[in-house]
Amino acid sequence: MNVTEDLSILSLIANASLLVKLVMALLGTVSFMSWYWIFRKWFSIRDAQKKTDLFERDFWSGGDLNALYQSAATGRHEAAGMERIFEAGYREFAKLRGKSLDHGAIIDGAKRAMRATYQREVDDLEAHLAFLASVGSVSPYVGLLGTVWGIMNAFRGLSNVGSATLAHVAPGIAEALVATAIGLFAAIPAVVAYNRFAHDIDRIAIRFESFTEEFLNILQRQLR
After folding, report:
1. pLDDT at residue 217 in the model
2. Is residue 143 a contact partner of residue 182, using CB atoms and an 8 Å limit?
3. What is the pLDDT of residue 168?
4. Would you call 35 helix, strand, or coil by DSSP?
5. How far is CA 211 from the centre of its chain?
6. pLDDT tens per residue, range 84-98
7. What CA–CA distances, in Å, run from 121 to 89, 179, 182?
8. What are the residue boundaries of the structural domains of the chain, listed by start?
């Protein structure tokens, strides 16, 4: 029997015990799902950054705020997170201003509207990040479960062999280590992606917060 064929990856997976196969199948499914969300989040965060840059350019170009609001409200293009914050704040500002309320009440109302929209936008950007964090932290341990079980089976099989050799132990240990390798393959990209996305989202959130404060200052000046 060819030892190289016996120890090939596909052969090890095919000849693994039922529990180890289940562990490998679970890790393979989780890895596929994590890669799916990695690409989805990468595109969505990149799109959010691009639209934020475009809206900031339009906002600080010195144009009329009412015209900018009308452009956002009529839905001429897909609004970005910062544009939605602006739209919510300006809509509440215009509504409360028409009621001749105290200036402080008008600004507080606009601020609450923007904070609520800010939170929704950040929550949307952070969606499924917890899944990537879970994959990164749990997958190595799931792979280790398959490894421990495979090694146990390998040594249990030695009890039926008169003289143990490396040829008897190697296939069992090799199939066990494949489970660990698949666990690491699932965990490492998830951890790297989570850290990167969390950093990018934090930067976008800071830009949203800064814009909210600056926009409130502009609204206060319009009330004077």
Report:
1. 92
2. yes
3. 60
4. helix
5. 24
6. 999 999 999 988 887
7. 14, 38, 35
8. 3-62+128-223
In degrees to the nearest 10, what's the CA dihedral of 131, 132, 138, 144? 130
Amino acid at 24: M
Cβ neighbours of residue 214 closer than 8 Å, sequence gap 6 or more: none
Q: What does DSSP assign to residue 7?
A: T
HSE on the CB side for 123, CA within 13 Å? Answer: 6
Residue 4, pLDDT above cutoff 60? no
CA distance 130 to 183: 18
Least trusted range by pLDDT, from 17-26, 30-39, 117-126, 177-186: 17-26
Instruction: Note whether 43 and 125 are within 8 A (CB).
Output: no
- Contacts (Cβ under 8 Å, ≥6 apart) of 92: 109, 110, 112, 113, 114
Question: At what angle are helices 81-97 and 103-126 packed, to 10 degrees?
Answer: 160
Task: Give me the pLDDT at residue 118, please.
Answer: 94
Q: E strands within 22-165? A: none
pLDDT at 218 over 70: yes
Tell me the DSSP string of 50-87. HHHHHHHHHHTTT--HHHHHHHHHTTSSPPPHHHHHHH
- What is the spatial distance between Cα 153 and Cα 27, in angstroms, rounded to a whole number? 20
Chain centroid to CA 62: 35
Amino acid symbol at 13: I
